[in-house]
Amino acid sequence: MKIKSVILPGVVAVVLLASVAYWIYEYKQFTVEPRVAGQDNRPLPDPQDAATQKPEGRLQTFREVAFAAPTPRPKPPASWRGFRGPDYNAVVQSEVPLAKQFGPEGPTKLWQVELGQGYAAPVVHDDRVYIIDYDMENQRDAIRCLSLADGAEIWRYSYPVKIKRNHGMSRTIPAIDGKYMVTIGPKCHVTCLDITTGEFKWMIDLVAEYGTKEPLWYAGQCPLIVEGKAILAPAGPEVLMMAVDCETGEVAWKTLNPKKWEMTHCSILPMEFAGHDFYVYPGSGGVAGVSAKDGTLLWQTDAWFLRVNVPTPVDCGDGKIFLCAGYNKGSMMLQLEQKDGKIVPKVLYELLPETFGSDQQTPIFYNGHIYGVRPDKQMVCMDLDGNILWTSGTENKYGLGPYIIVNEMIYILDDDSVLSLIEATPEKFNKTAQVKVLDGHESWGPPVLIEGKLLVRDLTTMACLDVTQ
Known about the structure:
Number of strands: 34
Largest sheet: 5 strands, antiparallel
Helix content: under 10%
Radius of gyration: 24 Å
Strand content: 35-45%
Distance between the termini: 79 Å
Strand order of the largest sheet: 1-4-5-6-7
Shape: globular
């Protein structure tokens, strides 16, 4: 007994010394850049919720990755600046000739990286890829910057937040403008960083500070950056929408929320009509149009409402706004009109879900027609009067997969990472290529096309494909 009483304290002391030495070694492997006091207006820490703890700055988790400045380019770099691309409509033109067919091996895979479970898609600027991820091992939202050339990580910024899988974890797309990037995490934490260095600017906890009710499947709203301001829809008890200065974190304007609409999974649509620039947002109780100048509420309607609404409104030109959802909601076409100096929304028509609805992805308006995947998983082409011109047929189903239009071709992924190319024409359904490009499933993050490179992801993997001719 005397021998044990002497040995045991000695063993404990050795273990403690070793732990302290290991902690010191690990701590010195990264630098912590503290946030600027008073600029993010965050609440006092809640010991029950790690998400309210002070952010720890930019973490160089992979120590072999060093910061590298972007390579100077002879012309302005191509940029995919946020949800649905450069013009917020999922339609892009590529100057690089693209393939319309693939061989049995499919397009060349330039690189592939592992991600935390989710459906968040990337944005691209100046040969860099930006994405919000979830670090499951360390329980942290991770905002990552990767090289477009080879997928190597350049920097990451992370902060603690405990979440568990709920149909994936991260699912939003950052907004960038060449100087700043803004993200919305699964639990509604809005973060602004310097796009080049990852330097922390500010953070807003929408739940703690604005009373936002966390959506059913975590936050699905993708932020906007317009003229140096982040455009957000907290949809809390007091504030429906607001603009935040990206440099200072100060609120430029707020839109009140007297009807207490709650946050949906939809994103904000920038739109113009009758000389007004405004933002369209479907809250839980209806749809509103908010002035881009000062946040004034220009119009609203409760004709369309659904708290679990996922697809974003579609601008169909001439004041037409197409709305759709799953869960037997179907779809609706609104028409904005100007009366007595005011904008007034009117319902043109409603469609049953079997005619057209969408569980998850936002349809695309292109050359006077709407292309989308309805609840029976078929792709359809529809005119603006709600007439179905063609369907892909029961032998061509695409699940909840995402799609974009590039150079008159629809690039669409199905649930199991099969990439198909379909002609974006109202005449008939014509598929020109089909090939499996990833090994996973739940490939729901919207693809990104930049200078002949197609970025795609499934639940746990992101890859860069060469789709040039």
